[in-house]
Amino acid sequence: MTTTHGDWFQRARLKLRHLQLFAALDEHRNIHRAAEQLGMSQPAASKLLAELEYLLGVSLFERHPRGVEPNWYGEVLIRHSRSIIAELDNAGEELAALREGNSGRVVVGTVAPGIDLLAQAIERLQLELPQLRVSIDTDVSQSLVEALAEGKYDLVLARIPDKLQGNRFIYENLAEEQLSFVCRQGHPLCARDGLGLADLAEYPWVLEPPDGLLRQRVSEQFLRSGVALPSQTIETRSVLVSMALIGRTDAITAISSDVARLAFDPRRFHVLRFQDGFSLKPFGIVRQKGRRLSPGAMQLIQAVRRAAEQTAARAQA
Fold first, then answer.
1. CATH for the stretch 101-175+282-316
2. Residue 294: what pLDDT?
3. Is 101-175+282-316's fold the same as 177-280's?
4. Is the dihedral of CA 153, 155, 160, 166 positive or negative?
5. Which stretches of the chain are DSSP H helices?
6. What per-residue confidence (pLDDT) applies to 1?
């Protein structure tokens, strides 16, 4: 059995073709389809896999009549294979950008409250590094951190997921996400100050599904206040659907304060005024431990930090 310490990959003669095969097998769970994707014959793919299993001294996939399924050993190699392939893809794009006279490329993912900070950071970077290419995706924290682990992002702005592996990531806190309750202009509650949750409970609500963090936070606040949850609730993850519904009815929605400020036109929508503020979990910069970031990515991190500091200073002023 080949030991998996030190330079095991050299002794096992691990090649890029092996990594590509692992990724293809993970996607298709079928050797024939994986081989087709890689432009090789099924016997050649089977031989490549069998050679590596022999050199490692462990089976990586369970063979079934209809395909293959990775075992724990296979899952480990698949995860790292995807990360290495993504890193090589990123390197190619960064080299191409440098050849074209650009300052490189940064791929970043963010939760909703990080959008405004990124916008501020990029505004600053456009003056300092006008040729830097920045690609931005939005998603929930769990998905973003999982994609970060696979090498799809240089960094993400996210909350700490419940299953975050502390030995694999570095987390740097940025801010707490404030929560706003929004209705249409002309709603019966618009003219009232010092509202409590009991004042809102009698109206319809538009909320994300129960598995969403924001929905869970709203439910938690109702329970803590001893107020029954709203009986009329429409569920959607779409901000646009929420806007359309509350714009035509007396429904109320709960949304990130940053999103409310960016997306909800104050001529059409009203942020209700409460006695106490509501906040969600903090969010921050998450990156892989031990991964060396490009100069462009480090510049973006610095710009995001400055944006967070300036936003906090304005809030306290």
1. 3.40.190.10
2. 81
3. yes
4. positive
5. 8-11, 16-28, 31-38, 42-56, 72-99, 115-128, 141-149, 197-200, 213-224, 239-248, 257-263, 295-316
6. 43
Q: State the fold for domain 8-80.
A: Arc Repressor Mutant, subunit A (1.10.10)
φ, ψ for residue 229 (rounded to 5)? -65, 145
Q: How far apart are CA 134 and CA 124, in angstroms?
A: 13
The domain spans of the chain are: 8-80, 101-175+282-316, 177-280
Closest CA to 259 of 246, 277, 271: 271
Q: Are 287 and 148 in contact (CB under 8 A)?
A: yes
With a cut of 50, list the residues of the chain below it in pLDDT: 1-3, 101
**Residue-by-residue DSSP string for 198-233:** HHHTTS-EEE--TTSHHHHHHHHHHHHTT-PPPS-E
Contact 82, 151 (CB under 8 A): yes
Q: What is the pTM of this model?
A: 0.60
**Can you tell me the distance from the alpha carbon of 226 to that of 303, in angstroms, rounded to the nearest whole number?**
43
Centre a 10 Å sphere on the Cβ of residue 271 and count the other Cβ atoms it contains. 16
Report pLDDT for 172: 92
Q: How many CA atoms lie within 13 A of 189 on its CB side?
A: 25
- In this structure, what token pair is assigned to residue 250? 């007396």
pLDDT at 5: 52
Residue 22: its pLDDT value, please?
A: 82
Q: What is the pLDDT of residues 31-72, one digit of tens each?
A: 888 888 888 888 888 887 887 787 777 888 888 888 888 888
CATH code for the part of the protein at 177-280 = 3.40.190.10
